[in-house]
């Protein structure tokens, strides 16, 4: 082995995240005394599924098997009717899951030295599993690559800190901070309100550093104990992986402090909902320049086509952007959550915002997705809207300059309406994959049926003695 390759292997062994081979993975784990490894795959909900195994077993056979049903499981643990969705329903055949060693990192909250690695799913004949969220995003990225384009994204994730809630019949409450008191009012951008949970956020930063996750900023949002973490811009798949890991990291850090962290879109009545805003730009791979800016620094026709694609197709991907019944409680009039398809320059009341920037950083912020969305699918769906806008040469409306919060609804009001729009859109099925569209719609419909079995407090309060 040359000195250079030895040096590269040593650098990989000391890096917090990612290697390129099993040999480097062995060195990486040995340097940390890793004894176990969590082999994960994100499902349709963005939940980590997989197996935990001894490190020695992982290196003897790094390929993992899980049943196909892992990509059909609803958030309540049930399954839709499989008929017409998959070929081998009865057998529920095993899939082959192969580790993406670029995602190898530690599990800093584990009691024993533990690593984790995200896997990609394949059929036994080597074909990627069309339903796997990482594959859906990869496919959309590949469509851009064929056009000579490279998408760049930067997600922003909002979440609430709440008191532990072991009985779902009781509403959530803000947690008690270091002052001994919970928040009772709005504390937007308050440093002091963030300082109430300094010990928790120190753990989040430490855990993130140990995993090679890059936080750009941390702020307090509008709601009581509502926070937002912004990530640095980069490759869509890498950023989706980071959001996937961040959600778990934040939950684990909060649990260590006897607090829940929740990414529900609307966890507390009369408080703002939580979003996952997605900033997007496109690079020309031949020049490295921003496709959205011309040589004079002005916006290009492609920029407005990208916006127009979102205006046309966002209603049809709302069941991805807002994937649960609760998600639509966030999308209400006179709130900062968008209800229509207006766009504007630095206008946070619009669903599509163009932030102030240099020409090199010109981008579109999609403010529609909620924080409960699967990051792989939300990014894929948003890029799919922009891609169709570009390839269909669509034209955007004029930008709105006033308040868009109380204009008419342009987006679906509920999950079933959103699923119907998703199923009926042939252009999106071409970009996202027809099998994925069918399977995702079936899972959402099954989740809605589960919700309909629950009687809400509103029904008991207003219907019990009045009808």
UniProtKB/TrEMBL annotation:
<dbReference type="InterPro" id="IPR036651">
    <property type="entry name" value="Gln_synt_N_sf"/>
</dbReference>
<protein>
    <submittedName>
        <fullName>Glutamine synthetase family protein</fullName>
        <ecNumber>6.3.1.-</ecNumber>
    </submittedName>
</protein>
<feature type="domain" description="GS catalytic">
    <location>
        <begin position="133"/>
        <end position="467"/>
    </location>
</feature>
<keyword id="KW-0436">Ligase</keyword>
<keyword id="KW-0460">Magnesium</keyword>
<dbReference type="Pfam" id="PF00120">
    <property type="entry name" value="Gln-synt_C"/>
</dbReference>
<feature type="domain" description="GS beta-grasp">
    <location>
        <begin position="32"/>
        <end position="126"/>
    </location>
</feature>
<dbReference type="InterPro" id="IPR027303">
    <property type="entry name" value="Gln_synth_gly_rich_site"/>
</dbReference>
<keyword id="KW-0535">Nitrogen fixation</keyword>
<dbReference type="GO" id="GO:0016874">
    <property type="term" value="F:ligase activity"/>
</dbReference>
<dbReference type="InterPro" id="IPR014746">
    <property type="entry name" value="Gln_synth/guanido_kin_cat_dom"/>
</dbReference>
<dbReference type="InterPro" id="IPR008147">
    <property type="entry name" value="Gln_synt_N"/>
</dbReference>
<comment type="function">
    <text>Catalyzes the ATP-dependent biosynthesis of glutamine from glutamate and ammonia.</text>
</comment>
<keyword id="KW-0067">ATP-binding</keyword>
<dbReference type="InterPro" id="IPR008146">
    <property type="entry name" value="Gln_synth_cat_dom"/>
</dbReference>
<comment type="similarity">
    <text>Belongs to the glutamine synthetase family.</text>
</comment>
<keyword id="KW-0547">Nucleotide-binding</keyword>
């Amino acid at each position: 082995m040359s000195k250079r390759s030895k040096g590269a292997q040593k650098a990989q062994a000391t890096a917090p995240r990612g290697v390129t081979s099993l040999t480097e993975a062995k060195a990486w784990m040995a340097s940390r005394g890793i004894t176990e490894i969590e082999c994960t795959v994100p499902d349709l909900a963005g939940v980590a599924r997989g197996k935990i195994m001894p490190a020695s077993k992982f290196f003897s056979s790094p390929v993992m098997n899980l049943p196909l049903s892992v990509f059909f499981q609803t958030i309540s643990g049930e399954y839709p009717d499989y008929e017409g969705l998959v070929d081998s329903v009865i057998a529920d055949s095993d899939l082959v899951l192969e580790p993406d060693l670029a995602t190898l990192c530690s599990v800093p909250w584990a009691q024993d030295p533990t690593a984790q690695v995200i896997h990609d799913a394949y059929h036994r004949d080597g074909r990627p599993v069309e339903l796997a969220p990482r594959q859906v995003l990869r496919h959309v990225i590949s469509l851009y690559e064929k056009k000579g384009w490279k998408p760049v994204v930067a997600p922003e994730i909002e979440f609430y800190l709440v008191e532990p809630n072991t009985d779902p019949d009781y509403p959530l409450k803000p947690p008690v901070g270091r002052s001994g008191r919970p928040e009772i009012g709005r504390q937007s951008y308050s440093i002091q309100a963030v300082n109430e949970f300094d010990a928790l956020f120190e753990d989040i930063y430490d855990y993130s550093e140990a995993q090679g996750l890059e936080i750009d900023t941390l702020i307090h949002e509008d709601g009581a104990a509502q926070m937002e973490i912004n990530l640095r811009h980069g490759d869509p798949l890498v950023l989706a992986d980071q959001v996937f890991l961040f959600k778990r990291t934040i939950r684990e850090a909060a649990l260590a402090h006897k607090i829940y962290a929740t990414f529900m879109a609307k966890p507390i009545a009369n408080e703002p909902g939580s979003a996952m805003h997605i900033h997007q730009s496109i690079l020309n791979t031949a020049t490295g320049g921003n496709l959205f800016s011309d040589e004079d620094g002005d916006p290009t026709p492609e920029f407005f086509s990208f916006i127009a694609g979102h205006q046309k197709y966002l209603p049809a991907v709302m069941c991805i952007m807002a994937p649960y019944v609760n998600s639509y409680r966030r999308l209400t009039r006179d709130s900062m959550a968008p209800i229509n398809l207006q766009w504007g320059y630095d206008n946070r009341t619009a669903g599509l915002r163009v932030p102030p920037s240099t020409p090199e950083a010109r981008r579109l912020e999609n403010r529609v997705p909620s924080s409960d969305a699967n990051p792989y699918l939300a990014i894929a769906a948003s890029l799919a809207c922009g891609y169709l806008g570009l390839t269909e040469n669509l034209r955007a409306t004029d930008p709105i300059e006033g308040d868009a919060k109380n204009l008419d609804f342009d987006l679906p009001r509920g999950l079933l309406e959103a699923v119907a729009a998703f199923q009926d859109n042939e252009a999106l099925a071409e970009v996202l994959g027809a099998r994925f569209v069918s399977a995702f719609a079936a899972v959402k419909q099954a989740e809605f049926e589960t919700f309909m079995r629950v009687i809400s407090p509103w029904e008991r309060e207003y219907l019990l003695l009045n009808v």
